[in-house]
Amino acid sequence: MVAVKQAAMGEITTLLGRGASFEGKLTFDGTVRIDGRFKGEVFSDDTLVIGEGAVVEAEIEIGEVIIQGTVVGNVKAKRSIEIHAPGRVKGDLHTPTLQIDKGVIFEGRSFMEAANGGLKPPTPAATKPAAPTPVK
Predict the structure, then answer these.
(1) Is 12 exposed, middle or buried (0-12, 13-18, 19+ CB in 10 A)?
(2) Using CA of residue 51, residue 44, residue 39, residue 91, what is the dihedral sign?
(3) Residue 68 contacts by C-beta under 8 Å, 6 or more apart in sequence?
(4) Cα 12 to Cα 34: distance, rounded to the nearest angstrom
(5) Which of 62, 77, 98, 119 is the least buried, fewest Cβ under 10 Å from its Cβ?
(6) Is the pTM of this model over 0.90?
(7) pLDDT tens sequence across 121-130
């Protein structure tokens, strides 16, 4: 089992424990850990930890997320997504920083976008070599 770094995630402010089930919209400040079942939407600029054995069916927009359980749904993280074994993710991931450990099952697409809203495609002028400048 991978231990979640306490310093990186801060103190856990809310816990949905094993055996608990919740459906709805979750918004929070601080660090939330889910070890039970959650279905719905998650919105926060802070940290979400999805523990081993947890099942989350949700659209997630978060600051950062650490996944050790099962997630079904798209995840958009402003800072980072970490998926540790035995984690399972089925959905698209959007984040500037992505870590997927050996043993993880990931079914979806990943988009590594800058925090400023995405990578900009090169302009046509930038893709052509510059014309030589005549020397006088």
Answers:
(1) middle
(2) negative
(3) 1, 2, 4, 49, 50, 51, 52, 54, 83, 84, 85, 86, 87
(4) 10
(5) 119
(6) no
(7) 444 544 455 5
